[in-house]
Amino acid sequence: MAKRSMFLLLLLSLSGSLAVQAAPLTVDVMQTSAGSLYTSISLIKGEKGAILVDAPFTRADAHRVVAWILESGKDLQAVYVTHDHPDHFFSMEVITQAFPNARVVSAPQVVEDIWKSIPLKVKRWGPMLGTNGPRYPTAPAALDADFMLLEGERIEVVGPLQGDHAHCTAIYVPSARTLIAGDLLFNEMHLWLGESLPPARKAWADSVERLAALGARRVIAGHKKPGLPDDTSSLAYTRSYLQRFEQSIQTSKDSAELSRKIQGAFPATIDVLDDFLLGTSSKVAMGEIPPWQE
Ligand SMILES: [Zn+2]
């Protein structure tokens, strides 16, 4: 064969192999407002399609998320819910009304948790949210695998693991080396420890090490102070917060003292709904109130 046609053949086979290889996925992040507890909502994007991870607490924030997805130009195929906390799925109906073809899914354990707790959530949060709350809150469908596919690329479900809830999941996108951590990681926002007794706090620390071992380049914390980058600093923050919280319990006589010590150790850290996160977490840790049931 002549040299020229050999070269042509090589070029053709190269372009052929490039054409069948899927482009890596990318991940965009939108943070909800204070009223929706500054939750990270992530959009995993392929060439044409997209998968949303978590949906906002309030209808107003859900409408902002709809606008953001529309502007991305992508076809929303699914919404994945990381865990059974209302700031991660409550106003889903706004998303599914705008994108009726999108399947709402989660890990089977999370689906079970949500079905159990929806009546309590509606009773607790409905009056506070009023017209800004969901009218038809419902649960996702259970995934039958621990991964999803978007345009041939794998999206891994990590967990359930102990985070601020007993059954938190995270999403890892290998082609983007990106970890969408859900409420397994926080950054400069007080950790929600209102449901956690000592074994759960220890298990959460172990979960952080498991996530660190994934080697993600980009890490999206479930909650962070607005303006912070989605980098690996949330791993170190969550780790050191859990350590300091445990140490401070040992040297505090009541929840007020524990709160003061944590605020002193993390002066830049924010709270939501006044001092809901640290206030409740401290009272539960010092045994002044029973663990919160959400
Ligand atoms: Zn949350």
- Which ranges are low-confidence, i.e. pLDDT below 50, for 5 or more consecutive residues? 5-19
**Number of separate structural domains:** 1
Give the count of helical stretches: 8
Q: How do the SSEs run, as a string of H and E?
A: HEEEHEHEHEEEEEHEHHH
Question: What quaternary form is this?
Answer: single chain
Which molecules are bound in this entry? zinc ion
Instruction: Report the CATH architecture.
Output: 4-Layer Sandwich
CA-to-CA gap between the ends? 72 Å
How large is the radius of gyration? 21 Å
Approximate helicity band: 25-40%
Shape: globular
CATH domain class? Alpha Beta
Overall mean pLDDT score?
A: 93
SS content category? alpha/beta
List how many beta strands DSSP finds: 11
The CATH topology: Metallo-beta-lactamase, Chain A
Task: Characterise this structure.
By secondary structure, this protein is an alpha/beta fold. The protein is 39% helix and 22% strand. It contains 8 helices and 11 strands. It has helices spanning 3-20, 59-72, 92-98, 108-129, 198-212, 233-250, 255-265, 276-285, and strands at residues 26-31, 40-45, 49-53, 75-80, 103-106, 141-142, 147-150, 153-161, 168-173, 178-187, 218-224. A hairpin with a 4-residue loop joins strand 9 (168-173) and strand 10. Helix 2 (59-72) runs parallel beside helix 3 (92-98). The N and C termini lie far apart (72 Å). The relative contact order is 0.12. It binds zinc ion. The site of zinc ion has 7 residues, from strand 11.
